[in-house]
């Protein structure tokens, strides 16, 4: 997924830079998706000031949800094409996780986007249940972010309680939100290294954690100076993983 997302970022950048060359319109490269949805994904997050990131993300997720649940429900091919578009622009899933933890607003669209990213084949009832689980995780992490001090045990308890359920998708979403918490939330950063030591000791979660650190770092590096702290921390944690394994 990370390789695909980096390739897409490079492709879009090259497309916009090579203005003198004859080229097909962008919609020609994404023929199976609504043009308005493609253009929403192509908007670069760093070009959106302040709260506009949340607003655009909410709008984008709402458009994708409508396309999937109304227009894209007719065939598995349409479902796959819409999910594949999201995978190409996976930075929006990373931003959805970040905004779910940082924003005061509660957006069901952002929750839906994150769940669809990991479980495109879920039926509506399954997806609704997964969204309920994801919302409870967001609420717990948000409450932790307001506490003067937190411990890694708080995150260990959250991880073990949510991943004991026999639903792999829930585990992936919980992991994504926890890694986002330690990278983007000031309180979370204070226990990032201790949490990584916990995962290294556990062993079995290492591939998923390193994958998340890699592509969230890639997303954050596209967003400018504001996210330098998160990028540096992610890279430091990746190095510690390599040394600890």
Automatic annotation (TrEMBL):
InterPro entries: FANCC. One of its GO terms (biological process) is nucleotide-excision repair. It comes from the Eukaryota. GO terms for cellular component: Fanconi anaemia nuclear complex. This is Fanconi anemia group C protein.
């Amino acid at each position: 997924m990370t390789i695909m997302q980096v390739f897409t970022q490079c492709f879009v950048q090259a497309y916009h830079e090579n203005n003198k060359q004859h080229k097909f319109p962008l919609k020609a490269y994404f023929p199976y998706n609504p043009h308005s949805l493609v253009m929403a994904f192509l908007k670069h997050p760093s070009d959106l000031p302040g709260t506009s990131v949340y607003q655009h993300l909410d709008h984008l997720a709402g458009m994708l949800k409508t396309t999937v649940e109304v227009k894209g429900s007719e065939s598995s091919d349409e479902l796959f094409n819409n999910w594949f578009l999201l995978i190409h622009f996976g930075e929006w899933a990373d931003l959805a996780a970040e905004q779910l933890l940082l924003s005061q607003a509660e957006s069901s669209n952002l929750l839906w986007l994150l769940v669809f990213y990991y479980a495109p084949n879920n039926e509506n009832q399954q997806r609704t249940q997964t969204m309920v689980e994801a919302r409870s995780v967001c609420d717990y992490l948000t409450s932790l972010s307001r506490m003067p001090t937190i411990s890694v045990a708080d995150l260990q308890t959250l991880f073990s309680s949510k991943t004991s359920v026999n639903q792999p998708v829930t585990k992936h979403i919980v992991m994504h939100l926890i890694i986002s918490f330690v990278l983007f939330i000031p309180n979370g950063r204070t226990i990032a290294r201790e949490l990584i030591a916990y995962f290294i000791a556990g062993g079995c979660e290492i591939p998923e954690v390193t994958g998340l650190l890699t592509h969230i770092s890639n997303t954050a590096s596209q967003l400018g100076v504001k996210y330098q702290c998160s990028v540096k921390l992610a890279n430091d944690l990746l190095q510690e993983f390599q040394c600890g394994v």
